[in-house]
Design a protein that fits this description.
The chain is an alpha/beta fold. 39% of the residues lie in helices and 21% in strands.
Length: 376
């Protein structure tokens, strides 16, 4: 499109500490009390403001601090004075200027798309081609080391219509994991959709035996049993079990998605804006997977309301991300809300925001209350 009359006049980012309501345990690490993140604000001379969110995890993708300083010191000079509507052009320059830092790049892209949507009165989903779905089935993770508390939580969200439960495994013994699954399966309704996620928690030499025994619980899929780059082990497991195998950490980029298709090491893929570096790259992964008959799932990285809204906009416009998504952390995990109107969850589904851009408004005082460092 031709250049617009808008120009970016300011780029600021706050490193934040999200207070958490509950503990979370995964095969590669634990989270409790607080979770680091960052919130980005891009201003324009036309008065439009775009918001983005960095949601990293040090053992998974990167750190909030590295992403915030990367934006402030290396990427801000590219943005100041630029036309915010030239999203593709700016993201190409950003990709060349800084390697890695996928979460920071995702935050910049969502802020630029937020501005673009507000300029034209369109949601990001409409910018991406229109809504395929208005609501997204909600998947809730069972990951509290206090399993009794997690059972109570599962029953609570089930009463709110949630029917998809993803159980984090691999951080305890196999026998303990089996007991947890038995209790959950007997507690929830017979129709409950249970999924299993190892978060790379198993070693290849005995992973297949343990995964096979999990099939008794009739999971919809089993996610990432082994380490990220152990693609051959993933392929062996995928061929040997009846349950679909999902790749998460094994697929960060479109190039990884091509490898997944070639080696057929997964039947399902978790698509996350933070992993891939933004909505455009995430949708490239979804398109590659769709061409090979591999279905997508909307994963998250402990995002607050801003990034969750971006994820909902993407899933809304991407037909192949069809197995639900995890956009609930701002509602039930985070101890503070940064949106003036929280994301809606109705009858076990996340409602896609309908306003322009991200479709949300940010409470700047709430952001300041959890900020631990500010770059302007």
């Amino acid at each position: 499109m031709a250049s617009s009359d808008l120009r970016i006049t300011g780029v600021s980012v706050d490193v934040i500490a999200w207070p958490l309501k509950m503990k979370r345990r995964h095969g590669v690490g634990d989270i409790e009390r607080s979770m680091p993140g960052a919130i980005l604000r891009i201003t324009t001379d036309g008065g439009l403001v775009g918001w983005g969110e960095v949601a990293p995890w040090a053992v998974f993708t990167g750190t909030a601090e590295a992403n915030a300083t990367g934006i402030a010191h290396y990427l801000k000079p590219i943005l100041i004075g630029a036309d915010p509507l030239r999203v593709s052009s700016l993201m190409q320059k950003i990709e060349k200027a800084l390697t890695g830092h996928t979460e920071g790049k995702a935050a910049i892209e969502m802020a630029l798309l937020d501005i673009t949507g507000k300029r034209f009165g369109l949601s990001i989903a409409q910018l991406l081609g229109g809504r395929y779905r208005e609501r997204v089935p909600l998947s809730v993770s069972i990951a509290n080391p206090d399993f009794d508390a997690d059972l109570e939580f599962a029953q609570y969200v089930a009463s709110r219509g949630v029917n998809i439960f993803k159980v984090k495994t691999g951080f305890l013994t196999h026998a303990e994991d089996m007991k947890r699954l038995e209790r959950l399966r007997s507690t929830l309704a017979p129709t409950a959709d249970i999924r299993i996620d190892y978060n790379q928690g198993l070693d290849p030499w005995n992973a297949l035996q343990q995964v096979r025994e999990m099939e008794v619980f009739r999971p919809t899929f089993i996610e990432q049993p082994v380490k990220r780059h152990q693609w051959e082990a993933m392929a062996d497991i995928a061929r040997a079990i009846d349950t679909p195998l999902m790749a998460d950490e094994s697929v960060f980029s479109p190039a990884d998605a091509i490898a997944m298709v070639r080696q057929r090491f997964a039947d399902v893929v978790a698509i996350k804006i933070m992993k891939s570096g933004g909505i455009a790259r995430a949708r490239e992964i979804a398109a590659i997977a769709e061409a090979a008959g591999i279905i997508g799932y909307g994963g998250t990285m402990f995002e607050g309301g801003i990034a969750s809204a971006a994820g909902l906009q993407m899933v809304s416009a991407t037909p192949n991300i069809a197995l639900g998504a995890e956009f609930y952390t701002s509602t039930w995990v985070m101890g503070i809300e940064v949106l003036t109107r929280p994301l809606q969850i109705e009858n076990g589904q996340s409602v896609v925001p309908s306003g322009p851009g991200l479709g949300v408004e940010v409470d700047e005082d709430a952001v300041k209350s959890i900020s631990i460092a500010h770059y302007a």
